[in-house]
Amino acid sequence: MPPDAPLTLDRILVAAEDVIRRFGPSKATVVDVARALGVSHTAVHKHVGSKAGLRDMVVARWLEATLIPLRAAVASKGPAPKRLRKLIDALIAVKRRRATDDPELFAAFGTLAVDAKSIVVAHIQEMINLIATIIAAGVEEGTFRTVDPTAMGRAVLIATSKFHHPFHAADWSDPAIDAAYEDVWQLLMDGLCA
Questions:
Q1: pLDDT tens-place string over residues 7-38
Q2: Which CATH fold topology does 9-49 show?
Q3: Is domain 58-192 classified as CATH 1.10.357.10?
Q4: What is the distance between the alpha carbons of residues 110 and 53, in angstroms, rounded to a whole number?
Q5: CA angle, 70 then 159 then 172, to 5°
């Protein structure tokens, strides 16, 4: 992007991600991002407010991108068990792709997320709500037994966390991980299906 392009929040966040990727999360300051953009730190401050605000926005942007394929799975047609599998498969795919395609930012994200608790909690709640939406549809269509959709949404997210939570990223290269996922999935379906 040309240096004289208008300074937008999106441009700032792209630059912040690049700074984090190259220098690590400790360099994700307003001054460092302003320097990378060739603008004053005051100009960046107008958009992000503070170093904490900047970091929170980077985390929120990262998490929002994760939700796009999950929302698509919820909006898709078909029986609830297939839609639920599509959603969890999409969650696993997006996390693994990010770990592989952008390992520096993926690693830094874990550090930044620790300080962005409210954003992470809201993200987790949205994932639970997306899962619960499909479970509620499955109860209504009779493919899932009568359960509390939110409680079961939380349970499904926790039960599958080894396959998508960044904490377990080192396990994703295990040749047995996909077979383990199939076993967990079968257990979930045995418990949920009517």
A1: 999 999 999 999 988 888 887 888 999 999 99
A2: Arc Repressor Mutant, subunit A (1.10.10)
A3: yes
A4: 17
A5: 75
Average pLDDT score over residue span 154-159: 98
What burial class does residue 120 get, using C-beta atoms within 10 Å of its C-beta: 0-12 exposed, 13-18 middle, 19+ buried?
middle
CA 52 to chain centre: 19
CA distances, 47 to each of 9, 43, 54, 96, 140 (Å): 6, 7, 9, 31, 45
CA–CA separation, 96 and 89 (whole Å): 11
pTM of the model: 0.90
Instruction: Please work out, in degrees rounded to the nearest 5, the angle formed at the alpha carbon of residue 20 by the alpha carbons of 5 and 121.
Output: 105
- The helix/strand count (H/E) of the chain reads as 9, 0
